[in-house]
Write a structure and sequence with these properties.
3-stranded parallel sheet; about 230 residues; binds magnesium ion; Rossmann fold; 5 strands; two-stranded antiparallel sheet; mainly alpha
Length: about 230
């Protein structure tokens, strides 16, 4: 559907305009095998591992942190973008697109590499990560980065916002889905619990909430922290 359609739902809260990674080459499409609905697990795994190397280089270059969170989340991120036709870059301004929220915003470097991989912007832009004045900051930033729906970093915000996107889509009758990746720290936030109750109450069957269960959080093992 055209982004200029008459739907009252303008889809998402994201910023940044889509820029083709390379206009001379076909747009990247989901890695789903034609018609089968399945994805090649080997290709998915290889893609995730290649992007993990990119993240390590980016984070090391920026003398930053949160490498573990980026590495553990990568399979989930790649799987979402590889299998959801509504997340292709060419639909970024489509109000009926699917939405993706990285609630564990400290894993921003992982999302930035995935968005580049799937054609939201040229991979060369990853060189901007953590440079002065760059929108590619250490937590997901909605300003000026195509594909980023919402700025996150403070935990507990992703699921509530995804709820709103999913409910809005259902209210206007479009097929948009809302994906959200949460951390264990997210799951300790009261707002996340309230959002889970809200999602169940409204039967948000177009909401896909994924928890990156890596067994660690900020200062240690989850079992020791809380
Ligand atoms: Mg964790």
């Amino acid at each position: 559907m055209s982004p200029n359609n008459s739907s009252p739902y303008q889809g998402g809260v994201g910023g940044g305009s889509f820029v083709s990674a390379n206009p001379s080459t076909p747009p990247r499409l989901p890695l789903v095998r034609g018609g089968s609905g399945s994805v090649d697990p080997t290709l998915l795994s290889k893609t995730a591992n290649r992007l993990r190397l990119q993240v390590i280089e980016m984070v090391a270059r920026g003398k930053s942190c949160h490498i573990g969170s980026c590495l553990s989340a990568m399979d989930l991120l790649v799987c979402c973008y590889a299998t959801a036709p509504g997340l292709v870059a060419q639909r970024w301004t489509d109000p009926d697109r699917d939405h993706f929220l990285l609630s564990k915003g400290h894993a921003a470097a992982a999302l930035y590499t995935v968005l580049a991989e799937f054609g939201y912007y040229p991979a060369e832009r990853l060189q901007e990560y953590l440079r002065d004045g760059s929108p590619f900051i250490g937590h997901t930033n909605v300003h000026g980065i195509p594909g980023v729906e919402f700025s996150t970093g403070s935990l507990g915000h992703g699921l509530p916002v995804a709820n709103g996107l999913a409910l809005a889509a259902k209210r206007v009758g479009n097929s948009s889905r809302a994906f959200v990746v949460l951390s264990e720290g997210d799951c300790e936030e009261g707002s996340t619990w309230e959002a889970a109750l809200f999602a169940a109450h409204h039967t948000l069957d177009n909401l896909v909430a994924l928890v990156d269960h890596n067994k660690i959080q900020n200062y240690g093992n989850v079992a020791d922290v809380l």
